[in-house]
Amino acid sequence: MKVVKFSGAIVEFEPEKLKKSLLKSGASHVAVDKILETIQSQIYNGITTKQIYKMAFGLLKKESNSHAAQYNLRAAIQMLGPAGFYFEKYIARLFNSEGYKTITNQTLEGKCVSHEVDVVLKKDEELAIVECKFHASRDVVSDVKIPMYILSRFNDLKDRKQTIFTNSDKISSCWIVTNNRFSSDAIAFGNCSNMNMLSWDYPKKDNLRHKIDSSKLYPVTCLTTLTLAEKDKLLVLDIILAGELIHNIQSLERIGLSQNRIKNVLKEVTELCKYLNHES
Q1: Rounded to whole angstroms, how far apart are CA atoms 199 and 22?
Q2: DSSP-based three-state secondary structure for 123
Q3: pLDDT for 155-213, tens place per residue?
């Protein structure tokens, strides 16, 4: 069975690969096998992976909103656009959870020119700039030009006294974070230049997907009980993480949700973020 990928490439359908992604949603083996059986009975030669994804998402949603939300993670990250402003805020929240102090959207003076910096991090002796490369399409790869460019900015900023968290901050390292992937040359150059790199699948054991799943810091755009317009309104209210709704129910009232819908949203958030497990 041939399927058409997002990039347009034609490849063999891999049921085990689909099964693995479905299991990552938290759904049981029984539910996943049932979904896989349904999909295999309906797909045809030349179907797109996008259509298969929609089928899988719809079937998962019938099983559990929270499992569908988790399965929808990569698409939900892509909703933090279109320019990536909310993606920068999301990445700052992610680093906050790891004990970093963060500040977004800073203009810092370098030796030669000024630089607009997406996120600045501070933890212990490390003070780092973070460049967030957001892509609305999952086919776009960050190539070697990206770390080359970021390295030149870092070199212009490093060891220069800045007023960020204190009056005498000095940039000591840099990060590149993308919601997609890095090319092999980009990774090789970044490693050679001692740059910190984080993408959807890099590094292998502590990549963006792993960080999100392990911390349960899912973006509010994951939620299946909200419309796209409602998610956008929450982002404007600076509600970036689904878990932030647990202690900010009034934000759901502000965007016009009924009490019954608020109850459904909070149920999904609780299941998705495992709040009950944390509190027990």
Answers
A1: 21
A2: strand
A3: 999 989 999 999 889 999 999 999 999 999 999 999 999 999 999 999 999 999 999 99
Is the alpha carbon torsion for 224, 229, 234, 238 positive or negative?
A: positive
Helix, strand, or coil here: 103?
strand
Whether the CB-CB separation of 69 and 272 falls below 8 Å is answered with: yes
CA distance 156 to 151: 9
| Cβ neighbours around 231 below 10 Å, total | 20
What is the model's pTM?
0.89
85-213 folds as Trna Endonuclease; Chain: A, domain 1 (3.40.1350)
If 0-12 CB within 10 Å is exposed, 13-18 middle and 19+ buried, where does residue 56 land?
A: buried
E-strand ranges in 56-194 read: 101-109, 114-123, 126-133, 141-142, 161-162, 169-170, 173-178, 181-182
Query: Among 198, 224, 189, 228, which residue's Cα sits nearest to residue 134?
Result: 198
pLDDT tens, position by position, 234-255: 999 999 999 999 999 999 999 9
> Which residue carries 């797109």 as its tokens?
48
Alpha-carbon distance 68 to 75, whole Å? 11
Cα–Cα distance, 149 to 155 (Å, whole number):
10
Amino acid at 72: N
**Cα distances (angstroms) measured from residue 129 to each of 100, 101, 160, 217, 276:** 12, 12, 13, 22, 35
